[in-house]
Amino acid sequence: MTGSDVAAAAAGAQPRASGRDRRVAAITHPWLLRVASIALVFGLWELGGAIPVSIAFPRFSATIGAFAEMLADGTFAAAYSQTIRPLAVGVALTGFGGILAGIVMGLSPRARWFGLPIFIILQAAPSAAIVPLITFLYGIGFAAKVFAVVLLSTPVIVLNSYRGISDTPRLLLEMSDAFLASRWQRIWKVVLPAASGLIFAGLRLGVAQGFTGAILAELLITPTGVGDLITYHRSLAEYDHMFAAILSIIVFASVTITLLQHVEHRIFRGDRRVA
Amino acid sequence: MTDHAGKSVRADAAAASVDGGPEPVIRVVDVAKEYPGGVQALGGVSFDVPAGELTSIIGPSGCGKTTTLKMIAGLVEPTAGQILVQDRVVRGPGPERAFVFQDFALMPWATVLRNVAFGLELRGVPRKRREAIAREHIARINLTGFEQAYPHQLSGGMRQRVGLARALAVDADILLMDEPFASVDEQIRRKFQEDLLMLLSEEHKTVVFVTHSIEEAVYVSDQIVILTRGPGRVSKVVRPEIERDGSPDEIRRNPGYLDAVEHIWSDLRSYLET
Q1: CA–CA separation, A248 vs A70, rounded Å?
Q2: B13 and B50, same structural domain?
Q3: Distance between CA atoms of A199 and A162, rounded to whole angstroms?
Q4: What residues have CB less than 8 Å from A262, skipping those under 6 apart?
Q5: B200: alpha, beta or left, given left = phi > 0 and alpha = psi -120 to 50?
Q6: ipTM of the complex
Q7: Do B107 and A190 lie within an 8 Å CB cutoff?
Q8: Which residues, other chains included, contact B68 with Cβ-Cβ below 8 Å and sequence gap of 6+?
Q9: CA of A268: which chain B residue's CA is closest?
Q10: Which of A30, A144, A163, B40 could cross-link A138 (Cys pair, CB 3.0–4.6 Å)?
Q11: B267: domain CATH number?
Q12: Contact B93/A196, CB-based, under 8 Å?
């Protein structure tokens, strides 16, 4: 949007722009660039599949065909209804607990000294290596999968919330003091809206991480849901179906993250809705 | 407009006067401020602010003007001495004082309407009432039509008017202004100075106004406190008794005005040279 405004402004400022300028403006139009970027990736994919790079690497067109088929016959619906449950429970837990932990750490130095090292270590830990160990603690059931989601999504949510809270502009804190805000008013009306950008960025990344956790659990602990789709089709060498399952993860995660962004703008940042 | 302002401000002050001098509503008594690390910002500052008048604090940068103002606001605690507002020792911000920030301090996520009404929102005034009050003040600062705009859609001058409206909306007796016109350009600045004088003539408020512009201080003030640097001390308190009968341009050419500017400048220069 901003790009098109700039392009429009440039066109308006120079009414007698040369044909070349106009062609440049048309070529650099944001939508055209976006479509071109996607087309380039899919084109390379198609090419890679046509060579083929590997027999396990299907063409883009074959993957899309498998995708449509799995969407139509309800395979995706069944798989996602399984995967989404530990994901939803895990993300709800970390979304609530993680943001709360981040806020407390942002507001209290003692909580920060105690908590920050734990989450920094967790973030740096090799999660794919840890996920199979969960079975020793939680077996191979639902709880293990929820734990995998929590394990992967917590650090980024906590650390982003903490960063957002501790970066609240001092000037706004001073303003709220000058206008007699109580402690709670200050947190609810100033600190949280100011931090909402980073908190929601953490939540979006956390959902993506949690998704990775859910799939990892399905691949490494017990084959169910989308993870099972990948494992199953790989074992049958139906690579187009396997890649269609991977593609569906990307689509699902992108849609979820975009929805979250809308929620954020509705609740906290009305000023960014227009931008 | 401005001459009215000047007259009524002084008339008001005269009404409140006892023994020829107006009653002080703020008393700064031997106030010192040392920041952690041993930086002495202020070393024993004392002055009175008469009720219903406009008092400017002026001085070179780093002399503690803003620190003094924030201590009156209760946002910064003095390390020694005390500040009395309406005969009570300042221990924090209070409803009788409102602050106008140099960098506006508007909430970027809130509309003009919510920003102006924010002080009332924090005091628990019901939404309908506080928005009605905010609309009145938005009209007074000529921003009607911008109620639903966000700060990033406004110019610097408009943002500062929003900051002023927010301070006026809580209807405090004392207005504390920290270089309110420093972030706007010269033409708008002069217009603001006149608007401020007019507003004050209607509101009868006590104003403490921090500025680094001698001309601005002389133009708007009934009393000027001159601070010096390292650590900040009161060098002098001046009352620039200027005839405010006439247009703003006439006032700026008035010998009394020019003398007062020259007087303050020579005083400040002697400190800068040593």
Answers
A1: 10
A2: yes
A3: 8
A4: none
A5: alpha
A6: 0.85
A7: yes
A8: B28, B31, B42, B45, B57, B210, B227, B232
A9: B109
A10: A144
A11: 3.40.50.300
A12: no
Quickly count: other Cβ atoms within 10 Å of residue A81's Cβ: 11
Report CB contact under 8 Å: B105, A174. Answer: yes
Q: Are A215 and A83 in contact (CB under 8 A)?
A: yes
Q: With respect to residue A64, please indicate whether it lies within any of the assigned structural domains.
A: no
The C-alpha atoms of residue B209 and residue B58 are separated, in whole angstroms, by 9
Q: Is residue B188 within a helix (H) or strand (E), and if so which, with residue range?
A: helix B186-203
Query: For B62, left (φ over 0), alpha (ψ -120 to 50), or beta?
Result: left
CA distance A255 to chain B (A): 25
Count the domains in chain B.
2
Cβ neighbours of A60 (radius 10 Å): 20
From B152, B171, B190, the end of a domain falls on B171
How far apart CA A77 and CA A176 sit, in angstroms, is 49
Q: Say if the Cβ atoms of B122 and A185 lie within 8 Å.
A: yes
B125 plus B246 within the same structural domain: no
Are A155 and A121 in the same domain? yes
Chain A: residue whose CA lies nearest to B101: A175
Q: How many CB atoms lie within 10 A of CB A115?
A: 18
Strands in B54-58's sheet, in edge-to-edge order, are B97-100, B174-178, B206-211, B54-58, B223-228, B233-238
pLDDT tens-place values along chain B, 274 residues long: 334 433 333 333 333 334 445 689 999 999 999 888 888 888 889 999 999 889 999 988 778 889 999 999 999 999 999 999 999 999 999 999 999 999 899 999 999 999 999 999 999 999 999 999 999 999 988 899 999 999 999 988 899 999 999 999 999 999 999 988 887 777 788 888 888 888 777 878 899 999 988 888 888 898 999 988 777 888 888 888 877 777 778 888 888 888 888 888 888 777 766 5
The domain containing residue B62 runs over which residues? Answer: 2-96+175-273
**Which token pair is A1?**
């949007």
CB–CB contacts below 8 A, A to B: 62
Same domain? A35 vs A170 = no
Calpha distance B152→B21 (Å, rounded): 45
pTM: 0.77
Mutate to test the interface with B, among A168, A170, A180, A188 (most CBs of B within 10 A): A180
